[in-house]
């Protein structure tokens, strides 16, 4: 296209870009992570703060990432260097690359579990229900050492394969069909799950807040972290995707659609999972295994549910692939520019390194289960550092960068807002509201108040 993009690849269309950003956002975060974090954080009060975080912090920062990427036409590190050369803002870029490595390393483990369940359903499924039920099956599988690693490796292989092929053919194409299918399936399953007898309890749990929870600082940090994780925010995935967009496409609508769809997916997933949690008498705070125990129960109680199990875990795995791709792309885009590697070389090498980094997270369920940090196993610790520390910190820097590091008129122009009321409101949020909110949540979670 133009000389501005240094011969970099670009999306085929604006729709392709929006779908890819949606593919990045919608993933294990909406179903696996949303369900267990909501369950552990007490339900409705958490959900309320989560939605406030999306509206007041998430969407404005999402807009900021798209704006930075499209303006700079570079990877997450290069973007800061391009817009403010020689300034320390580039720290946010390096933080983003580090987050990509950490998140994808454990994301691949959970995605591997999902792939395994898909293949179980492909080959008849019943093994999942055998002897002692779904909980026992899950425990036996994920505490085993070899099998989870194998599936993690396969997941990383698929993700590398798509990034290897490239932005337009690889990333854009894979999202167009799978996302709508997943949406339909989640709606159907939520409808069915609500008939299982746990509906009233689930609705109370999700929508009637226990106000005393609002006094618990951990709930705020959990909600903030979940908002960043679920929106793929704070580590440059959306800067990188924005950088493959040509200058003539409009941004604000895209930002709102991505955040809206992601949130809708999470709430629907809650409506699918929690009625079953209560109907089957499972504890909502059972942790990361929650969906792997409840969902097979739903499928089992559905006559002919095998086909649903098969479809569901296929689509969940596919959603995980499109998110994994965006994580890998952050690092690949950086290494391609910085070290002049080919896309192929970067995808293979970095993908393999990330697989290696993920091994301890996987073994932390089995051979390394004795290793814990502040009561968290290895995977949980990686997730905590990335999602509750690195992502909000990255988001804080991104907000400050656009709010203060950039001339206001430039930021307004680059964002397509122009000098409008909404645009000025956006800048005020980035300058004051989002940074202060993130800062206060950080301080309170380490016990300052
Ligand atoms: N948003 C993805 C999900 O919900 C995870 C992700 C986080 C992807 C950060 C990219 C960057 O599953
Ligand atoms: Na998400």
TrEMBL record:
Q: Which spans are transmembrane here?
A: 12-32, 44-68, 89-113, 149-167, 179-199, 219-241, 253-282, 302-335, 347-373, 385-406, 426-448
Name the GO cellular-component terms.
Answer: membrane
CDD domains xref list = SLC6sbd_Tyt1-Like (cd10336)
Asked whether the keyword Transport is assigned, the reply is yes
Keyword vocabulary terms for this entry: Membrane, Symport, Transmembrane, Transmembrane helix, Transport
**Gene Ontology MF, one:** symporter activity
Membrane topology designation: Multi-pass membrane protein
Instruction: Identify the SUPFAM superfamilies for this entry.
Output: SNF-like (SSF161070)
Location in the cell reads: Membrane
Report the leader peptide range: none
> What family is this protein classified in?
Belongs to the sodium:neurotransmitter symporter (SNF) (TC 2.A.22) family.
PANTHER family xref list:
TRANSPORTER
Protein name, per record: Transporter
